[in-house]
Design a protein that fits this description.
The protein has 682 residues and is of the alpha/beta class. It is built from 17 helices and 25 strands. It has three domains: 6-168 and 211-396, TIM Barrel (Alpha-Beta Barrel); 405-604, Rossmann fold; 618-679, Sandwich (Immunoglobulin-like), CATH 2.60.40.
Length: 682
Amino acid sequence: MTGARSGASAGLTRVPGLLYGGDYNADQWPEQVWAEDARLMREAGVTLATVGVFAWARLQPAPDSWDFGWLDRLLDLLHAHGVAVDLATATASPPAWLVRAHPELRPVTADGVRLEFGSRQHYCPSSAVYRAAATRLTRALAERYRDHPALALWHIHNEYGDHVTECFCAESATDFRRWLTERYEDVETLNQAWGTAFWSQRYGCFEEIEPPRTAPGPGNPTQLLDWRRFCSDALLACHRAERAVLEEICPQVPVTTNFMSMFKALDYWEWARHEDFVSDDAYPDPADPRAHVTAAMTYDLMRSLKDGRPWLLMEQAPSAVSWRPVNLPKRPGLQRLWSLQALARGADGILFFQWRASVAGAEKFHSAMLPHRGTASRGWRETVRFGAELRRLVELAGSRLRGQAAVVLDWDSWWALELDEHPSARMRWPDLLRPWYAALYERGVTIDFVRPGAPLDGYRAVLAPNLYLLTEESAHWLTRYVHGGGTLVCGPFSGISDRDDHVHAGGHPGPLRPLLGVVVDEHWPIPDGASTTVRLASGEIRATLWSEWLETEGAQALAHYASGDLAGRPAVTRNVHGAGAAWYVGCHLGADIAAVLDLALAPTAIAPAFPLPLPPGVEATRRHAEDGTTYLCLLNHGPDTVRLTLDATGTDLLTGTAVAGRLTLGPLDAAVVRLHPTEDRA
């Protein structure tokens, strides 16, 4: 199972239009409440409810005891009210009877502490006992409900890796050694890859290898990198085992699991291969005035993981969450705006956690579509109002976004970049990426994320804010792109190591030296709180965190350091290669990277989704349907009313009004304009 089922491309599920709903933890409530919930779901326009996510103990109260009667009645009730079901396999939290019978399945930390029952995800990903019990439950559910008319989607597990991404127990050690044997075949190949001549770390056989538990000093970096790879694969093996059961018993029903935005622990490129479509749980912080920019970035990733196909926002908070130190609610209109933002960036469904607010447990202060106050609450009014608005946007379903620029994201490189014992611990992938993404976001440029080796046809520019780990194959991939006429902009501390995290000899950026026309003589981190001036022809900008002693090897220096020990040395370069150009930015510029990107992208003729300049806080995207219809999505994240001048006419689907040349958006307001086909100029 490495791709979507053939029928999934027509829609995320058999439910037509855009999906709307959320998690319904009906097992937390007496059955007399269910009828009211079903009625209110219909009133709110809910089309899909996620059911049974944490119901393992209710479904299987003892090893050989099953209780499906309540779930039968629940699915029948929801179906009778026109609500389809996203049925979870309920495997995220093993029940107490399983944990007490097999205490060895509980995960162990790097310090040797075995974690206790009483939260969730209290299992070792490599545990054969856990995997057998999980697939047994999945099989029982699949066999019972495969033909139920309410079943529209299978939801495997829940938020893999949210609490436990790794386990250091003996069974994990055995699984790790198996994984290493498959990867390296013989121990001498592993010794070479891990550089075990250093500190007398050589192994005589695979049985001598243990997970990277807490040690007296720094660990072997390649071992740590392989451990990150293994841990992602171990959780994926759990997922694939459950999926195999579902594929065997009811292959006609699509399968997904909920990702957690840009999550370091799991290689979502590989995970997405095993989903029929991508689902995401996103919880932007209402206290963060830039939260919508980070949300846009993660939504673009979700869309990119399946080559631009529509995705599902599986979870978001209707208002406040319960797990931050201070949990701000969403002010009126923000829930609507942020939901529309997900649609604007390719989602075909908006779901929430959760439907009815819990009265007990760790999430009892987490907001819900139906809050504690019930139908008299502000939250309920927003739930009903947005459900009605979503029905006006039904024709958006199936349309897609097309990125004009690509950002390279490689989980191997991310993991390797953030290992210890580097010139600076401040070089973190999300921190390097965000300002580059924000610069394009604020210019209305839609981007796609790509993994190394992906097709680059059609992209006017490729950005690589960091490629610490770079293989020869990836270097050739980028070189071919630039030679054919593309524009590459590469950030600092790139081309440092190979796939085994061995430093490329001869100077950095390693195999990208011929393409970029530069060599780094020495890395020059910038201390916390300090900065260095960089002079462009257009003016001065500032570098923080990182700089490099850079020498040109054919490239043209377009910016120089104007202060500090590197004063006069190149900071930003451009090298013509074939029909294209490769830029290198040898320092961390933060938000000032926008000035460099403006220069680099000017010749590419990248067209924004909306004529520039965009007012501050306004976001613009375009979704394109197969029949040629274009939808211009405009969102005002700012506190002020904005008046926009459009170079097209159309109809705002949210209001049903004609749009001719001008459009006014109040604070937290939005418009989704179906453009007249002859006037779509993007």
